[in-house]
Amino acid sequence: MIKAFLKQYGPTHRLGKLLKRRQLIKANTPDWQSLLMADRDLWERALQASQSGSNILLATSVGAFWPGMSVEGLLGAALTLRGARVHTLLCDALLPACLDCDATYYRDLERFVQHGPRRDLCQYCFTPAQRTYETLGFVNHRYSQWLTDNDQETINELSAQLSVEEIRQFTWEGVTVGEHTLAGTLRFFARASLPSGQAAIAVLRRYFKAALLTTRAVQRLFQAVNFEAAVFHHGIYVPQGLIGEVARSQGVRVVNWNPAYRKQCFIFSHGDTYHHTLMNEPVKHWENISWNTATENHLMEYLKSRWHGTQDWIWFHENPQIDLTKIASEVGIDFTKPCIGLLTNVMWDAQLHYPANAFPNMLDWVLKTIDYFAKRPDLQLLIRVHPAEIRGTLVSRQPIVAEVQKVFPTLPPNVFVIPPESPVSTYATMQPCNAVLIYGTKTGIELTSIGIPVIVAGEAWIRNKGITRDAKSIEDYFQALDELPLATGLDTATIQRARKYAYHFFFRRMIPLNFFGQDQAERANFKLSIDSLKALLPKQHQGLDTVCKGILTGSEFIFPVEQAAR
């Protein structure tokens, strides 16, 4: 009854979310003060020695993003202990919109249009983050200190004058401001397209202004300080996407990171967000790795664990349905006849430009694929909607099923859909398929490892690895579909190649940083859990050494799991 009341009344609902947010930030904030007191001499010597070291920027920006504060604080301490002079960058309630904002906080959208996050979200963002970085003694920068009154005036005029289409296409001094503006706005709404109405346009303008302010502030900072590298989470959206654009334009090395699937593991990438870099990673990094029965068993045991998420901190079903007989009965499909699987993504996620994609967007791909299969009664199409639509951090406000129903009120009789709320196991349903069609999902890495052919239409990371059929155009995609059903699954050599890449992806690109305790009661997944700063010194943790070396020297972010296993 109380829950229903809180959900019904907007302000109360928003207050509840803000209080929960405050608790999460507090639960995940590291206690650096105690750690520094225990190793004060070590830290003072390290700070002194770092004065002549390379300048490294931790461009956290959004202090309320507690995984960012925990991980980047850890990296800052470790880099200082390795001689680097660490700088930080935080937004001090300057930006009118950012990564931390989303529509769930603003059922009354007009409140956000009028005031942005300053009256609420900003209250729990800059101050605790600044306090943390000041405790560590880093060189701390704020957005506002790098902007003049004239900058603000120019940006105010620009953000108010341009049309929506001009904003989408806008490039400013070589920085693709419009692309990141749109991606950030779509994330706010958790949609793949802007809602109709003036309020949505006003939100777009807020993100556009924030993108312009970020661009100018970071340009000035990079002109004033000679940075060796800029390190920050995501690498997309507002403000992180703009920081990366400016850094690359000014010759500053970019290091982006994100939490990985495996517990206490992270993916780091050079130059850009992993959404781009993993697609084009040189195959020389993995195709000749040592391979034996023990390595293969290690991989296959992990892949099987992903059915239940026992080794991961990102999974979607506690008790997935894996019984094919029950699945067939529930869905209505006949697994004794040729089946082609199709796996969707969350429509709003990482809406960037991917030149290699065969289709303009995922929805267009899904609709055209259904239309194709309507003319192929010899095949069944089984669409599995991504569970993250309703179980992810941001629940999608543009469900793929609803979009499909607009075009196909009644599905063709040979097309079946498993909705996101279904506990049906994606892995179990794809195994009997003759082939699987994907756009951007990571599941292609796992499916090819068990011999299932995969056709890639979008920005999936398995693309360009010599493992999948990668559609280079719409015509090429449908030519691949014309060849279905395939006479056989993947051959032995391709399966081994797929498994080598899967091993590389899950065990070498996902770098362990086992410094974070988990407290489910407090929902604290990124609470720093170390007893001494000495744990962060060189040669104490191979994962941390790999990451710090990559940041300081540009070496590859590949964890030497083969050495660690010895």
Overview of the molecule:
- This protein has helices at residues 2-8, 10-28, 32-38, 40-50, 66-80, 109-115, 126-136, 149-161, 164-169, 177-189, 198-224, 240-249, 274-277, 293-305, 324-331, 362-373, 388-391, 400-407, 426-430, 443-449, 474-482, 492-509, 542-553, 561-564; strands spanning 55-61, 85-90, 139-142, 227-233, 253-259, 265-270, 339-343, 380-384, 415-418, 435-438, 454-456, 469-470, 510-512, 516-519, 524-528.
- The chain is an alpha/beta fold and 566 residues long.
- The protein folds into 2 domains: 2-253, Rossmann fold (3-Layer(aba) Sandwich), CATH 3.40.50; 288-509, Rossmann fold (3-Layer(aba) Sandwich), CATH 3.40.50.
- It has a 7-stranded mixed sheet with strand order 3-2-1-4-5-6-13, with helices on both faces. It has a 6-stranded parallel sheet with strand order 9-8-7-10-11-12, with helices on both faces. Strands 14-15 form a two-stranded antiparallel sheet.
- Helix 6 packs parallel to helix 11 (198-224), helix 8 packs antiparallel against helix 11 (198-224) and helix 20 (443-449) packs across helix 22 (492-509).
- It is globular, with a radius of gyration of 24 Å.
- It starts with a helix and ends with a helix.
Summarize the structure.
Helix content is 44%, strand content 13%.
